[in-house]
Amino acid sequence: MIWKKRNESFVAGAAERPMEQLIRSRNISDWHSFSQPMHHPEHDPFLMKDMDVAVEILHEHLSEGKRILVFGDYDVDGTTSVAMMYEWLTKLGANTTFYIPNRYEEGYGFSITGAQYAIDQKMDLVITLDCGTKDGARIELCRNAGIDVIVCDHHEPGELPKANALLNPKRKDCAYPFTGLSGCGVGYKLIVAYTERHPHPNSHPSQYHDLVAIAAGADIVPMLDENRTLVAKGLYLMNRYLRPGLAALLRKSGTKRTTWDVTDLVFLLAPRINAAGRVASGNEAVKLIIAQEEAEVDQLAQQVEDFNLSRRSIDQEVSASALAKVEADPQHEASFVTVVYDDEWLKGVIGIVASRLIEKYYRPTIVFTKSHDVYAGSGRSIEGVDLYAALESCKDEIVQFGGHTMAAGLTVLPEKMEAFALRFNEVVKEMMKGERSEPVAYYDIPMRMNDVDLSWVEEIKSMAPFGPDNMAPVFLFENVQHAYPPKKIGADQKHIKCALRQQESRGYIDAVGFGLAKEWDVFQYPQLDILGALEINEFNGRRSVQIMIKAVRQHQG
């Protein structure tokens, strides 16, 4: 692993405080504004292409009591989007229902089954959320049947479908000033725009900030610009009022926490909401999010938690099987990618398995399983390789694909699998200029332990919310020693707990390294370099600084 300063050109001033160094290293020009994201104005929704058209189409259908279908994907972004739009429309008195496709029967996006459902049920309007940009054929099918279609999406557009209104800030002809919204974020902007143009006593867009925040955290969108504002508002709402379903789901997780941040959205809520669509149906996640009755909430929360436990077990089995296949492949060592498939793997976990294979081999990875007459794949990428662009270069070997720079989904005919794997490797090798990459661990600035205290860590919190393009600061602590011998912790003994000090330190700082027991031999060196984030640990009413170790090596001095 390579250790790199996040901003390699940054040089600290001799008299600068650590916080001043951190702000300058991140090129933050207006700290006062940056540190108060909740006070930033949200962008005018009518700057988004087709927004005025979408609002008037929606108003017409609402005014005339026509039938509206809310369609969204089975992942977190899709299910939170559907829950938000369905709940809002219901409060406006709409004649509405929702539809989440079955991952195994229908696959990703606005499915042919979903389009046929809209036709059979004589829907008048379909609103697609977190999908639709790549679904021109199904949209055309609805339009030919006399159904209007509004698309709310954020995926990379190719040839634009002929929807009545296509809301996607990534459209080349869209003047919206921020392209990084989640699918739920785009749907939220439609709600804001409608409320501005047609006020309603039951329309309060701010009550959906929590769902927009969960979608943004789960979908790994850039934590910049409007996303920081929306996520900050969402966390503010969640720390004052939790939807009954989310509160029940967090209780089922066993957490003792009482306040929430982006980390909780990503690691506590998102996997559980996702598990419904991975193991059974995303419908259960939507029902849980919008549920109000205590008995229903508890039953749904337990069901979703059970899905999550099942997903974990299946994930471990498929990961072990995939690793065995890769290790048995004599061509893999020379390859620039990992492509692996099996007819029996559960489709709902192949994306997670792709991420695990990247942790092991650090190569762009696609994991496939058989889905009806094709292979359905889920891909993850590494820094410097645009997965969407790579698949675009392989499109002659692909039935369909969609996604982002770092993650994508695709389908390939069985007879094309070998040709696709070869082409994908060639494209990635060219992108990487024939040189293999190593994983990179980034840090912001070097730190001395004597400069670390509770007030400094509180200052760091003012940079939140954290996420892609605004990651939580990581610091380099050089030449540290153990104040006490390290020990392995956790039920599976995969984590490290230790106490660290430097030669000039006044005392020691407790540290935890999750998943770092694999580096046990490195921790035995008397002098270490550590990359770590700083957090406040609260235990029995006592607050203390804790280092969350990200990487460790023998001291380089």
Keywords for this entry:
single chain, 557 residues, alpha/beta, OB fold (Dihydrolipoamide Acetyltransferase, E2P), 3 domains, five-stranded parallel sheet, 18 helices, inorganic pyrophosphatase (n-terminal core)
If you had to describe this structure to a student in words, what would you say it looks like?
This protein is of the alpha/beta class and 557 residues long. It has three domains: 2-26 and 444-554, Nucleic acid-binding proteins (OB fold (Dihydrolipoamide Acetyltransferase, E2P), Beta Barrel); 45-241, inorganic pyrophosphatase (n-terminal core), CATH 3.90.1640; 329-431, Diaminopimelate Epimerase, Chain A, domain 1 (Roll). 38% of the residues lie in helices and 21% in strands. Strands 3-2-4-5-6 form a five-stranded parallel beta sheet, with helices on both faces. Strands 7-8-9-11-10 form a five-stranded mixed beta sheet, sandwiched between helices. Strands 14-15-16-18-17 form a five-stranded mixed beta barrel. Strand 17 and strand 18 (542-554) form a beta hairpin. Helix 4 (76-91) runs antiparallel to helix 8 (209-218). The chain is globular, with a radius of gyration of 24 Å. The mean pLDDT is 94.
